Amino acid sequence: LTALRGDSVICSGLASSLWVDSLPGTVYHWLLPNHWTGESSTHELSFISSSPGAEVMVSASNACSRGDTLKMMLRVEKVPDEALIIADIDYWCQNTVHILYTDSLAGISYQWSVANDWSVLGDSRSDSVNILAGGGEGAVLLEASNFCGYRRSRRTFTSVPEPEQPVLRNLHSGNEPFRELLVQNASSYESI
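^ that's the sequence the OP posted. Answer follows.
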């Protein structure tokens, strides 16, 4: 045997393959790490990994002898965990911009998106993003992916509208005039 071929980076829990040259009259002996599944006596092996990186070995034999053992170190990756969407507050003022971020991990790509009338401003493929708050409740989605797959996380935020300008109205109660100050969309008031 001259070379052991296949991907040196594989995905945990997914089928992968390795192979060597096919020689007539030859039996192949594959050795997998503990807890990996797969077996073959041909020049090709399909298997499923279930642990961190480890070494796969193969040798070949015929009626005359058994040849040298070939080895390949494989690195095992997995589908990313859900990314944590980090923000300072859950309640935003409508039409304001806020920065969200996640803890960036090597080898992971990120994609931000929003629902309803909320907006992503600028680059959406980073570990941080600028979000423009729309009205009411808005969902922010973050997809974390690598070549093994992706997972999507979601966080909901609530926006409140800005208070409207106060309205001072002249009213009458019987013959007595009085003024009424009308304030909407406000949760606290300063005395005037």
